[in-house]
Amino acid sequence: MANGKVYLVGAGPGDPGLLTIKGQLCLTQADVVIYDYLANPLLLGYAPEHAEKIYVGKVRGNHHLPQEQTNALLAEKAAEGKQVVRLKGGDPYIFGRGGEEAAYLKERNIPFEVVPGVTAGFAAAAYAGIPLTHRDITTSLALMTGHERPERKLSSLDWEKLATGLGTLIFYMGMTNLRMISEQLIEHGRSPKTPVAVVQWATLPRQRTLVGTLETIADDVVREGIEPPAVIIVGEVVGYRENLRWYDNLPLFGKRFLITRPRAQATEFIYKLQQQGAETICIPTIEIAPPDDLQPLDDAISNISDFDSLILTSANGVEAFFARLAENKKDVRCLAGIQLIAVGPKTAETIEKHGLRPDLVPERYQAEGLVEELLAEGVEGKRFLYPRAKVVRPVLSEGLKSAGAEVVAPVAYQNVRPTGKEEMIRHLLSESELDAVCFTSSSTFENLLKMFGDELKELKGRAEFFSIGSITTETIRKNGFEVALQPEKFTIDDLVAAMVEYYQK
Ligand code: SAH
Question: Buried b / exposed e across 227-265, counting CB within 10 Å, b at 16+?
Fold first, then answer.
């Protein structure tokens, strides 16, 4: 049996971009991932599909899997010869019981490695605009747990050292004891006016940062309703935030958007929104599935050399077509001499990923634009292959046919409506937890409407609808809903730019 090994990997504080490259590599090689409450579940996406994912964090106030059981689980999976990733929030060796887990493995001769992570305190400081050390103010830094085991309460001597001996202090797990912590620090010699920052959900779009002083912070936190997980940063450096804050100044910071396109196509959109500080929730209202009948597409592929042009109008269409080409034991060489037409830059880009360069990308990213350009070139007697989605507008086929072209348009994929997502979406919409729903195609909207029917009307006014382009907008309006925003050009970049502008107004 292959040798199993355990990797104690720091997941970082929350922002998925703060995972280390080595941590990511471990995940991509994992057979088992054992993860915590504070490790961002999005990171599980790096693990192979077949990898077993085991959650050992707490569920709504319930307790974690007891540490002893987690230890045993690590050992057991490694003994089976598996590559085990123990994914822990922040850094595994900072208040993460990583030391206990490593010692348990060591005792049983199970090999392990530790991959450090960006610890929450450091990340919170960076994202709140607080340099933890600054040569004008402080040259030292201490990390503290604010949640001591009862039998190990800090003596007053320790408090004195803390209060006067050290510069910046970061408390983890300190929210329930915040009042006690600030009182003790004041009592043992820190100025009551010392600035304090509490940073909740650091590095995530729901980050909240509250600044007060040792004297006020316990009351401030209650008033503002700030709860764990949060780190508490004590020291004069907190004063720099006013000048150095950046994260919560991003244009879409604090905004929450529902993305309804399939996750595989949503990644870039999500990433771009997050770069602007937004929180994104992806619940696809469409899924891409193969057509019910593959024969028409297969027939067209086996007679591919009969065609003059190949029209692809979406990234999904491109992927579906090339997948089918491979299934039919053909490759791109069979497209030699055929004019390649891509509608939209995204489609063109996807084609290029397959090593081909489209001959024509119409100026306007819609069927109408393409028909216009092709007719100008002349299409009479030409044979077009147009692998398409199951449901499409007839514009393209009819426009070409009526000008004397022959169009073969086999279904290459279909959009299906996923089931079982209603509850999640209803919750998001009804609690007014969303600023807007983003629609990137008519079917993303139509499916949402099918899922909710008239109920969607009741949700009017709670969240705005954003649309990527005029066809989608028309579909939404036709059904009696308003569209708050539509970019001039129908690309993700333009949509994101329009969203930024919308909220800056
Ligand atoms: N090993 C982790 C710490 C685990 S202890 C690390 O290195 O970050 C759990 C505590 O970490 C929480 O009570 C909170 O104080 C802090 N914490 C973890 N993630 C956080 C986040 N995103 N924002 C603020 N505090 C966080």
Answer: eebbbbbbbbbbbbbeeeeebbebbbbebbbbbbbbeeb
Report the run of H or E that residue 309 belongs to, with start and end. strand 309-312
Q: Is the pLDDT of residue 144 over 80?
A: yes
* Spacing, Cα 200 to ligand 1 middle (Å): 9
CATH 3.40.1010.10 given to domain 5-118 = yes
Dihedral-angle region of residue 397 (phi above 0 means left; psi in -120 to 50 means alpha; beta otherwise): alpha
- Cα of 154 vs centre of ligand 1, distance in Å, is 21
200, 231, 233, 234, best to mutate for ligand 1 pocket (most atoms within 8 Å of CB): 231
263-311: pLDDT as tens digits: 778 888 999 998 999 988 888 888 889 999 999 999 999 999 999 999 9
Place of tokens 């006067």: 164
Q: What is the pLDDT of residues 69-114, one digit of tens each?
A: 999 999 999 999 999 999 999 999 999 899 999 999 999 999 999 9
For residue 203, the ligand 1 atom closest to its alpha carbon is 22
Domain 256-286+417-504 has CATH 3.40.50.10090: yes
pTM attached to this predicted model: 0.75
Summarize the confidence of residues 404-422 as an average pLDDT: 89
CATH architecture of the domain with residue range 122-249: 2-Layer Sandwich (3.30)
Task: Choose the catalytic residue: 31, 36, 91, 435.
Answer: 36
The CATH fold of domain 293-414: Rossmann fold (3.40.50)
| Ligand 1 pocket residue status of 116, Cβ below 6 Å | no
For residue 38 and ligand 1, the question of a CB distance below 6 A is answered with yes
| 454 counts as catalytic | no
Count of C-beta atoms within a 10 Å radius of residue 158: 14
Q: Ligand 1: which of 15, 20, 38 to mutate, most ligand atoms within 8 Å of CB?
A: 38
Domain segments of the chain as ranges: 5-118, 122-249, 256-286+417-504, 293-414
